[in-house]
Design goal:
The radius of gyration is 18 Å and the shape is elongated. It is mostly beta strands and 108 residues long. A hairpin with a 5-residue loop joins β8 and β9. The strands form three sheets. Strands 6-7-8-9 form a four-stranded antiparallel beta sheet, with no helix packed on it. The chain has a three-stranded antiparallel beta sheet with strand order 1-4-5, with no helix packed on it. The protein has a two-stranded antiparallel ribbon with strand order 2-3.
């Protein structure tokens, strides 16, 4: 199974603000903590063992510096395709997670 994910540290805080016309007011907010950084993950999970087979992460890899919020497509030929928010469209080896091909589409 292949899963797009988001690493996004957030702190919930009560944040009273004045009411503004035509604005949604929840009375609280999620804020990124100091030094917090958001990145994406793309993970292969072995459904027989429930363990991570491999993972690409914006924390340590050049890809997925932005959130991974889309879907992926796996082929019978052992390829997995997924797009990034920066416009890169990537092909990975389904077994190892190695990048086999990349194309810049011009839009995320």
């Amino acid at each position: 199974m292949y899963v797009c994910g988001i690493h996004q540290p957030q702190i919930w805080t009560a944040k009273p603000e004045k009411l503004e016309p035509d604005a949604l007011r929840l009375g609280s907010a999620f804020v990124t903590p100091p030094g917090g950084r958001t990145w994406g993950t793309f993970t292969a999970i072995d459904v027989r063992t429930n363990k991570i087979a491999w993972q690409r992460s914006g924390e340590r890899d050049a890809d997925f510096q932005q959130m991974c919020i889309g879907g992926s497509m796996a082929t019978a030929g052992g390829l997995v395709f997924v797009g990034e928010g920066n416009g890169n469209f990537n092909a990975y080896d389904a077994r190892t997670g190695n990048v086999l091909w990349q194309f810049q589409t011009g839009a995320g």
